[in-house]
Structures are given as C-alpha cells and as structure tokens.
Specification:
Elements (H helix, E strand, L loop, with lengths): L2 H16 L15 H4 L9 H18 L4 H31 L1 H4 L4 H9 L7 H7 L1 H15 L1
C-alpha cells in the first residue's frame, strides 16, 4: 500500500470515528445521550452541554408522556434531533477549519481572527457586532485599509 493510499484510508477512519452518530437514539432498554449518541468535534466546546441537555430532555419527555416509555423515547428524539444535528454540523465545519490550519496561519492577524470566529458558522456579523462592536468596527476599518 502506498503512503498516500494509507493516509487517505486512515483519514476516512478518523472521520468516521470522530464524527459518529447513531440512529435511532434508543434501543429496547437503552437510551443514548451525549457523546454516546454522537460526537461533536471538541473545538466548539459543546459536548458536555449536549449531554446535559439530552438528559434534561429525556427526563422531561418521560414526565410529559406519563409513563408511556415508547412515546417518551420518540418525543425525546423528536425534540433533540434538530438541535443535535445543527450543533454537530457546526462542529464538523469547525473541524474542517482546523484541517486547513496551516493555510489560516498565512492570513494577516485580523483575517485570521475573523476566520476563526466564523469557523463553525454559528456567529454571523450581526451577532458578533452585538457581542463585540469594537472588534467588528476595528476589523472593518483595518480590512478596508488592507483591501483599499
């Protein structure tokens, strides 16, 4: 096996390992939450949050369905799936950003910072402007000077 072929096979293995998800969220006597259910790349820092939110949603579904376990499990999955898929997609985008880290390091510091902040797709210009208006103003001023 050539080195390039090995590297490609190993990369595919790691992608499957690091970005896994199971369907459905439950079996006959097992309910999965957190990283047991799906892995989100660590770079967005949401693994623990997802696990706690999953556990809370499961408890609420069990309570709301009044002891009807199959209905509760379905309600849990229905409630959590869109949230989980959105966060895992953001984590995957962030992981891809890190795959090209060397290229990002060639950017000027302001473009690097901007790229880093937006790596997961969860922070747009408006949101960033609300959180850090000074950064956005300085970024826009500096980029217009660099580009202009």
């Amino acid at each position: 096996m050539e080195r390039e072929e090995f590297v490609q096979l190993f990369r595919e293995f790691l992608e499957r390992l690091l970005v896994s998800k199971l369907d459905p969220y439950h079996g006959e006597k097992v309910v999965l939450v957190g990283d047991a259910l799906r892995t989100a790349h660590f770079s967005i820092g949401s693994g623990t949050r997802l696990a706690f939110e999953d556990a809370i949603a499961l408890a609420q579904a069990l309570r709301d369905q009044g002891g009807d376990v199959p209905s509760a499990l379905q309600a849990y999955e229905t409630a959590r799936r869109p949230i989980v898929e959105k966060l895992v997609a953001a984590a995957n985008r962030s992981a891809q950003w890190y795959e090209h880290f060397g290229e990002h390091m060639l950017l000027d510091p302001w473009r690097l910072a901007w790229s880093y902040i937006q790596r997961s797709g969860r922070v747009d210009v408006d949101r960033l402007g609300q959180v850090s208006p000074r950064f956005v103003a300085q970024y826009e001023a500096r980029i217009s000077n660099i580009s202009g």
